[in-house]
Amino acid sequence: MKKLIAFSSPSGGGKSTIVKRILTDFPNFVLSISATTRSPRTGEIDGLHYYFKTFADFKQLIDTNQLIEWEEIFGNYYGTPKSELTKIDGKKCLIFDIDVKGALSMKNNYPDDSLLIFIAPPSLQVLEQRLRNRSSDSEQQINYRLKRAEFELSFKNQFDEIVINDDLEIAYQNVIKILKANTNCF
Ligand code: ADP
Ligand code: 5GP
Asked: What CATH number does domain 4-182 carry, 3.40.50.300, 3.10.105.10, 3.30.565.10, 1.20.1250.20?
């Protein structure tokens, strides 16, 4: 059974929404908190949503080998601290909200323990609408995220499971079914 569960999707695909609900509904799932150089969005708290770092501090994490994986995305650095793995004890599973390359390198490092779930938007048009409705990114950021979406979608067949996020409730129930079949964390 799997202990490391990665969720990837194009930005705006719905992975944070789905992950948040899993964390609320099932206490044995805990979130891996990433380090990033991006600025906090409204409501984001250091140490809860991300560890917000300067570029210099992030570089030090790389240089001292403290990250499992890291990527440059949208002009910022994002990476998973090795220390997050200490959160797995007993019945706990660790959830990662990371980009496609980060998810694949995690599977490469921990092939027996990793389950990769790709959350796909029903279409690029719907994705654009959701990014706009989220109102958290500038026009430039939205265009950047849409441009990257096709690149991210091209990785979906390398994932263990693909869930289409059209109706949120159906997508969530499909994710829970997959987690019940592949983990011992309920
Ligand atoms: P991601 O974490 O993949 O970037 P989010 O979870 O932030 O994406 O979702 C992007 C936006 O789309 C959010 O405003 C969210 O509320 C909305 N959203 C997510 N899933 C759905 C859905 N199935 N139908 C409509 N809106 C959705
Ligand atoms: P956002 O800025 O929307 O929070 O995240 C942008 C992208 O970075 C998302 O695809 C998110 O999943 C990804 N991301 C967040 N943390 C990490 C990480 O630690 N490693 C990698 N590879 N990607 C991450």
From this structure: 3.40.50.300
| Ligand minimally distant from the alpha carbon of residue 170 | 1
| Ligand 2 near 78 CB (within 6 A) | yes
Which atom belonging to ligand 2 lies closest to the Cα atom of 80? 19
Token pair belonging to 25: 């509904």
Sign of CA dihedral 112, 173, 86, 89: negative
pLDDT, tens digit only, all 186 positions of the chain: 999 999 999 999 999 999 999 999 999 999 999 999 999 988 999 999 999 999 999 999 999 999 999 999 989 999 999 999 999 988 899 999 999 999 999 999 999 999 999 999 999 999 999 999 988 888 998 999 999 999 999 999 999 999 999 999 999 999 999 999 999 999
**Cα distance between residue 77 and residue 55, in whole Å:** 8
